Amino acid sequence: MVRGEALVVCSDKSMGAGITVWDMESGDHLLHIPTCASPPHGLLCLRNHFLVASQVHKHGSFGGGAIFIWPFNKPQAPLRSYPIEAIGPLSCTNDGLYLAGGAPSGNAYVWEVSSGRLLKSWRAHQKSLSCMTFSDDNSFLITGSDDGSIGIWSMISLLDVAECGNVPSFFHSWLEHQSSISGLLSTFGSSGSVLVSSSLDGTCKVWDVISGRLLRTQAYSQAISAIILDPEEQLLLSGSADGRIFINTLDIGLEENTTIISEDQPIVLSGHKGSITALSFSISGLWLISASEDCTACLWDARSWVVTRRFNHAKGQITNMVVIKRSLLLSLAENSQRVSYQPRVSLLDKYPQPTNTSRGTVALLPTYSSLEEDISNTGFCSTTSMNKQILDLEQGQTPAAIQMKVETSIENRLWATSMTKHITDMNKHLRSRLLDLMHCRLLVPSKVDFSTNGKRKKLKVSSPLLREDEPESPA
User: Fold this and answer.
1) Residues 6+ apart with CB under 8 A from 32
2) Which domain holds residue 48?
């Protein structure tokens, strides 16, 4: 069975349903986090230290949005942020430095996690965002909408401080799906970064992210509501609206092949009575987990494709699902050594802040210490203690020193991003100037006059490349 892993699920029906955590090996109930109802694609695990979830809102209302962040060492005390509007899907970079959210209005947002600063907000789509993800190398943010459109956004332009007030442009924009985008997966193919998208129109499409080419289309008889790749990225598993799961080989070749392939002979898994809402693999890769509107989650053996365990969620249908290490849920005493190195997260800004404005105080998630430690922290320190703190600070061993290093790293990254953009613009300008010079020379050839005695004489030509006070070269 699955060892040392836990299954985290939540519903979107009621805030009272909260988050439920099960032991995947025994099926035991481990934890319940109250007050959470998250829309599809609205739950994620951040840097193996936090759960992040956007909260549902009343239908048709774009106000009152909320994003909750729970530290695993104290899941009953979330950090509550209130963006300017409701947020649906969420995604974060692999390193956990940036968090992106999409709104029903079609707007997209990117925050810096450690400071909470809103780096960019813009109109990404005409209709509601249904899902979003980052590319494997974090160089692109990929967004999908209810109108079937997909947008590819360069992170260099999104993080460019100099253009924080400008609307970013698409790196690519696709409108090949005929219905809402239900899933986005980023992987690597033979030619580079590859995107797999699914839609309620019953198709899955494979795209080359760099060139923008559509490589392959797979058609099904049912609407596809969730997708996942196996750990080796050889199989595409597609959950449908009728509760079935289709397994196809993900054939990404060098040649472009957009031929629609009908549902011929895929492996079909049947274990649910309602639409598939989420798919995931265990950390070990030996087990597939599927969630459904029938209020159950199934654990499948990835070799025999047989259901080995079923989790019943009495609090409603399962909308989101995340697999984590069970060690993240250790008791407070066992977590005491890990709390000191817990990454920093802050309240997420509602509005963009000027880059030259002081941030003031930063909201931190609660940490833990005894009453004696609190008293000693607020009192005077001995000379020996102060010397030790100074030494630890110089050696970078204290949380404050680590935090300073993180902030310095983020500032250096933003500076490097700005310099990259500046160099790219310079290269474009130089290439444009070179093309203009070549074009002028081609449009103004040398004119030759043949006299009656058969001798050639080069005539003076007015050229933008030759100044009036500059003599011509001899013929």
Assistant:
1) 18, 19, 20, 21
2) 1-79+320-332
